[in-house]
What does this fold into?
Amino acid sequence: MEPTSHTVSGAPRPVVAKPSRRDFLRAGARVSLGLGVGLSSLDWLTSCTKLADHRIAPWDELASKLQGALVRPGAASFSELSTPWALQYASTIPQAIAQCRTEADVQTCIQWAKANSMPIVARSGGHSYGGYSLTTGLMINVSALNTFTYEPTTGLATVGSGARNRTIFTQCKPLDRAIPHGRCYEVGVAGLVLGGGIGFDMRLHGLTCDALRETRIVLADGRMLTCNEKENADLFWACRGAGGGNFGIHTSFTFDTFPVGTITTFNLVWTDRLADTFAAIQTMTLSAPDTLGIKVSITAQKQAGASVLSLSILGHFVGSEADLRSLIAPILTVQKPAEQTIQIAPYWDGQQLITEEGRPEYSHERSRFVKGQLSDEAVRQIILNLKNWPGTSKAATWKYFLLGGQIDARSPTDMAFVHRGYSMLSSIELEWTPADDAALLAKNEQWLTGFHNQMEAYTSSYCYQNFIDPSQEGYLQAYYGTNLPRLQAIKRKYDPENLFNYPQSIPV
Ligand SMILES: Cc1cc2nc3c(=O)[nH]c(=O)nc-3n(C[C@H](O)[C@H](O)[C@H](O)COP(=O)(O)OP(=O)(O)OC[C@H]3O[C@@H](n4cnc5c(N)ncnc54)[C@H](O)[C@@H]3O)c2cc1C
It folds into this structure.
């Protein structure tokens, strides 16, 4: 069999346009929709001032050197390319977006930005929870580097850094193979792998970063490096879990793949006796085989002013429907679910049953890794907090993803991803819409902080760097723990002038 290689998306056309008054007004309108964790109006004014200051930058010169488009505010595609997944940060407007089509384009952007003192940021899938793939300078957008190559003799797949989970879904399906991936179609593979990468395969096959064999990266000095266990091994160590935006701009990732067969997917919902049902779910999950990938959620929604709670389990089981049913039987003896879908399917058809699109929204998520079992008191507090949720026009969810299995085949120092030996990744997610006013949002944010801080008594103080949280105190320690000093030394070696920086980046 010949290796397969192609670009998944179409080639963009060059567009150079100046910012229009409407872009400024649109930016102002976005500010009014932000929550406390977004930019203030003052920050936005500062951004606009910076925009005016930099208008003399030689954009035409950059555009002429790129194979891809240089898209400026006012161009038809600008808004779509600039808008982040976390809409509360959409008020930060880049002066230009370079849609890189080649590795050389990425090198050109970095060299041009340095020569013109222009701040830069990398954008792949745009799903940073903190809006950290935005800048008031030049956004280096690699989404057009959406290639996929499979080498049958080694079982290795190489994806361009513009690939999304959707690319993995569509390209791996005909091969009957997979890469440990995330659940939402639109999340970028770059951000996912650089910060770890959790998903329903991780207990059986490890995290996305565990499957990484090689990556190519453009450094601050414009050099293109290949990193693997033998070449630039220190940087390869750091790229597996230190998160995006810290050391350079990646252009490709090479992964181990694994063969797939049939799986049993499930989605069960309960609306009653939540504490008892949760206890049975927790007992089952903590002794489950590695073939089970599961997310357990308790969701609150407002109905006639009251918080109405539901409990759900969602995931897949690599095994038969009968074996899954016997695994969950002790839960069903507590109570039958209000809704239940259990379906056996070929692996990739099954993924489609449990996936989400991942379209932009307003959301703030705060995470904690958990060791062992959550106590009855912890569960009582979770339910109480959700019952006392102030409410928005959307929802609030406490959830956990079951960890263990192959994640713990590595030690915390094997690579930058330090969080090994935990039973769960828990998180609280607050969602809202523009219909919710500022006073209500402030109350919700206060509630989220209180809930998150209270949970620390029952969890660890460590947080998932891919659920990056602009309001997390002591975030460097929380994301990287004992690996932080080594990461800082690597940062000093490869980016001594701190070209790649954002509010929570690894400092020099
Ligand atoms: C709806 C949704 C679902 C999610 N589901 C999962 C999940 O199932 N599993 C999981 O582990 N996580 C999940 N996440 C978290 C996700 O992994 C992170 O938000 C991740 O950083 C997103 O990557 P991105 O490329 O889409 O984002 P971006 O916003 O493009 O980038 C994230 C960060 O990486 C930097 N970056 C982007 N591209 C590059 C590059 N080529 N080189 C260097 N740095 C780069 C950016 O500058 C930014 O700092 C989810 C997030 C959302 C919003």
In short: The pocket of flavin-adenine dinucleotide is lined by residues 85, 121-129, 132-133, 142, 161, 182-184, 187-188, 190-192, 195-199, 244-245, 249-250, 358, 466, 502 (CB under 6 Å). The chain is about 30% helix and 25% strand.
